[in-house]
Design brief:
The chain is an alpha/beta fold and about 350 residues long. Helices cover about 50% and strands about 10% of the residues. It contains 17 helices and seven strands. It starts with a helix and ends with a helix.
Amino acid sequence: MNKLKHSIPEGTAADNPSNLVKRGEVLDSIRDDRLVVVTGTGVSLHSLGYPSPETEIASWPGLLRHGLDHCLSLQLITVDEAAIVELQIKNGNTNYLIDAAQKIHDCLDKRDNARYWWMKESIGQLKVRNPSLIQAIHKLNGLIATLNYDSLLREVTGRPSIHWRQQTEITKYLRSNSKEFVLHLHGQWEVPGSIVLDRKSYEEISIDVKMQDLLRHFARFQTMLFIGCGQTFFDPNFRTLLDWAHKALQGAEHRHFICCRQSEEPSILTALQPHGYLAPLVYGQSYSDLTPFIEALAEEGGASAATANPSLAASARAGANKATKPLTPAELWKLQSQR
């Protein structure tokens, strides 16, 4: 406990007893090899160098605006229809966004293979500029799942992308206790038929027995750590899981955790009030505290032997032989969090 306490910035919500207990539970899941990391838009935005303009496509509204412009350029939607879709995107409500996505997909379906080329010209062009957060997540040595359509996790970790429709492949990996893949819970851009974005696809995945069984397995037997997920808990797919878990996990003795800034904790507690098996885990006061926090978890959980880049690992080992001892991730996190 002393080591754990030492790596937490004192005087913040991350330092309070409740947060220390939750952090300890995550560490236990790393040591027991039952951690599932679920990444969201925030991880992609960080890796793309947010707030540079091109990162907008990685967000749900940004992708939909790109799709709307794509439909207009191909004359697949009228100006009046586009104005309605723009209002839906601007509103930001989850249901409106799904309706906007449905209209964009319906328009693209008027042209052969148009969905693929839209994905290729948008998500397919995203490249990693800052790999540090993904490298830290990889060091946790857990199963990595993502709600993102991009290939950034594959680009950094080298793990192949497997989307939710590839249930045979998923089963093979899990039966062999292998975590050397990235599970795309909402599809992967190179396979447009796997993309979960519009109302039809959300309805389809919400009643897919194998997919829902997989999510329930994670909920029952693993510890899920949500990183950069934002609105994850308000999309229809996870709402289905939440509705099931609200009944099935009553009395559960383990929790799942949502990484958040200190300022976000009250709103998360309010939004997820009925779901006692989900808890916010404060990583610091600003977004820059997240990577050191994850690195410290990997180090303290004993999982840091995994690396996304062997050359970086070799450099780190060489540096350790120098007279000046490098800062550990835990010490780096402490310094950044107390600036």
